[in-house]
Design goal:
The structure holds two protein chains of two kinds.
Chain A lengths: L2 E4 L3 E3 L5 E8 L6 E8 L6 E6 L6 E3 L7 E6 L4 E6 L8 E9 L15 E2 L3 E5 L2
Chain B lengths: L3 E4 L2 E4 L5 E7 L4 E2 L4 E2 L1 E6 L6 E5 L3 E2 L7 E6 L2 E6 L8 E7 L6 E2 L3 E5 L1
Parallel strand pairs in B: 2-13
Antiparallel strand pairs in B: 1-3, 3-10, 4-5, 6-7, 6-11, 7-8, 9-10, 11-12, 11-13
Classes of the chains: A mainly beta, B mainly beta.
Chain lengths: ~130, ~110
């Protein structure tokens, strides 16, 4: 079945970097963008950025510009999100999320909502 | 950025009663040429990722019970649970996918009264 399986929980020290992986199965990997969304404990959902696995093109939320890098390895159907310069404010659950890629005539971001989410990866930043 | 504002922050509804959640966007997410609203609703239960309930503002996903319905257009939207069931206890989020950055409402926690 269609699923996104993320890497396990991470504990990092302030100033370090973390890389979270997201392995796709059950669908054509290159047809769907991978977006990353995070959620601090008890808080709402915060969009971090998107990556098109076909082209490798990316777009990041301004808040994370310069600190986040989204990449992929199409041969193993896996997307990656690396966040650097960690602080305690980055402690959260990080989700990868699939949205059908769109590059049509209508000037909108996507045609559909997020239909598949990873299970989430807890990243804890603590000294 | 399109700011999404949900209300209320939480609501408690008796089993079998109606629950209504509101979502306003800071600009229209309706593309007039195709009359489509680029607005989704998600349900999130504790310890789980969000689940897509509705997109296009009113199109239920396969398998979503018909007690869930989405309405509205332009910049004002609602999610209605017509007859609340115990399994509907969750936090509900609206999200616009009209523009980048994608943005979410702050969430509405639905509980049983």
């Amino acid at each position: 079945q269609v699923q996104l399986v993320q890497s396990g929980a991470e504990v990092k020290k302030p100033g370090a970097s973390v890389m979270v992986s997201c392995k796709a199965s059950g669908y054509t990997f290159t047809r769907y963008d991978i977006n990353w969304v995070r959620q601090a404990t008890g808080q709402g959902l915060e969009w971090m950025g998107w990556m098109n696995p076909n082209s490798g093109n990316t777009g990041y939320a301004q808040k994370f510009q310069g600190r986040v890098t989204m990449t992929r390895n199409t041969s193993i159907r896996t997307a990656y999100m690396e966040l650097s310069g960690l602080t305690s404010e980055d402690t959260a659950v990080y989700y990868c999320a699939r949205i059908e890629a769109y590059d049509g005539a209508i000037p909108v971001a996507y045609q559909y909502g997020v239909d598949v989410w990873g299970q989430g990866t807890t990243v804890t930043v603590s000294s | 950025d399109i700011v999404m504002t949900q209300s209320p922050d939480s609501l408690a509804v008796s089993l079998g009663e109606r629950a209504t959640i509101n979502c306003k966007s800071s600009q229209s997410v309706l593309y007039s040429s195709n009359n489509k609203n680029y607005l989704a609703w998600y349900q999130q239960k504790p310890g789980q990722p969000p689940k897509l309930l509705i997109d296009w503002a009113s199109t239920r996903q396969s398998g979503v019970p018909d007690r869930f319905s989405g309405g509205g257009s332009g910049a004002d939207f609602t999610l209605t649970i017509s007859s609340l069931q115990a399994e509907d206890v969750a936090v509900y989020y609206c999200q616009q996918y009209y523009g980048i950055p994608l943005t979410f409402g702050g969430g509405t926690k639905v509980e049983i009264k």
